[in-house]
Amino acid sequence: MSAVPMPPLRGLRQAPRHLLVCEKGHARHARSRHAAHVRDHAYNCRVSFLIPECGVLPEVLKSAIADVGEYYLVRNLSVHELVAHEFIDAFVKKGSCYALTYNTRIDQDNTAALLPNGKLILSVDKDTYEELGLQGRPSRYSGKKVMRYIITIDLTDSGFHPDSKKHNRVLWALREKKPLEFDFLLAWYNTGAEGSTLMSYFSKNQIQALKPKITFSTLRDLQCPVLQSNELQGKPEESCGTEELFEWLGAVLNQVSFCYFGEPKLAYWLTLTVHGFADSPVSWRENEHGFHKGGENLYNFVIFRNLDYWLQMAVGTYDDCPP
Amino acid sequence: VGAALPVDVLTYEEKTLSAILRVISSGLVKLWSALTLMGFYQNRRCAFRVLQASPFLLALSGNSRDLVL
């Protein structure tokens, strides 16, 4: 009988790492990064507003919500169709096209995503990677024995034109060598220009136009924390810091009944929380995102009356530090 | 687990039989294991399924894995 070395049991008590970063800015400041952070986080499944002391929703918000466009679910779509030049010319090179595989798990299944900058990201298991034969790199979160690879294809690259070796190889790999097919969530934002729509382009596939589900609720007797935009750490007896606010907001949105604060005070701020897809292959920009015990990649704005804001970005274990 | 490791029940919803539990980070594995291995309660068969786990309570209010279209 031989002894097998056991990993130290203290490993069981270590919590997986996670990160919460907070930055303060002012919306009208020339170098404010609030728009960039929002734009760089491509795939989001839920947006929540919390507006204290608000009995009636402001018209400007009502109309912004009403103007939210459609997105599409296309069933059994082959990935090679996204690499076809007709598709690239019609949607990738014009406006912003987003695609993400629906119902795939980033820690188990093959996943694909198309970013609005034209990069197609394939997150595949080892067998698929070897069968595809396309150049990629090991996943950052795969551990010593690499079981997951990331392939990034720039569809707008000048070297990717219809007759190029690159394009032909990719098309061959995805169409013949190892065809990959998924249900895709798609969205396309284009200002002005006439042309095809996703609905007409994929009319031969099973395509469904969908609109986000919108719900409103009024929370009565909700005691909100006092926040001072300059005091990110909070001020004892005066205001709460960013971490306390983040936790309080979590309690409110999950309907945890807690009595956090003594006296009710007027709140001169509102929050906007955006949840990313747990199974997206990227978080911000092209930073690889994975699912360890959770796939959280979310951000929360606290917007003050004077347009100062706090931006909190939270990620889990298999994530880069947010930008 | 509850006696050796403090666990808070933050919410419980009878309709969906779901709850949000809170435990100290170092107790996560113990709690998760205990829930996984719990097959009986008061002589009745039962099973616990962890739907979502996160160090951020806010993250639990949005789970894309629940998205059904």
Measured distance between first and last alpha carbons of chain A: 52 Å
Mean pLDDT of chain A: 91
What percent of the residues of chain A sit in helical stretches (DSSP H or I)? 10-25%
Give the class of chain A from helix and strand content and strand pairing.
alpha+beta
Oligomer: heterodimer
Tell me the strand order in the biggest sheet of chain A. Answer: 7-8-6-5-4-9-3-10
Distinct helical segment count of chain B: 1
Rg estimate of chain B, integer Å: 13 Å
Q: Which class best fits the helix and strand makeup of chain B?
A: alpha+beta
- Strand percentage of chain A lies at 25-35%
Biggest sheet strand line-up of chain B: 1-2
How many independent structural domains of chain B? 1
Strand share of the residues of chain B?
A: 15-25%
How many extended strands of chain B? 4
Unreliable runs of chain A: 1-8
Shape annotation of chain B: globular
Q: Taking Cα atoms only, what radius of gyration of chain A do you get, to the nearest Å?
A: 23 Å
Q: Tell me the overall shape of chain A.
A: globular
**Total helical elements of chain A:** 8
Task: Explain what the structure shows.
The complex is a heterodimer of chains A (323) and B (69). Chain A is an alpha+beta fold and 323 residues long. Chain A is 20% helix and 27% strand. Chain A contains eight helices and 13 strands. In chain A, the strands form two sheets. In chain A, strands 7-8-6-5-4-9-3-10 form an eight-stranded antiparallel sheet. Chain B has one domain. Chain B has one helix and four strands. Chain B has one helix spanning 28-37, and strands spanning 7-13, 18-23, 40-41, 44-45. In chain B, the strands form two sheets. A two-stranded antiparallel ribbon of chain B has the order 1-2. A two-stranded antiparallel ribbon of chain B has the order 3-4. The longest helix of chain B is centred in the middle third of the chain and has 10 residues, at 28-37. The termini of chain B are far apart.
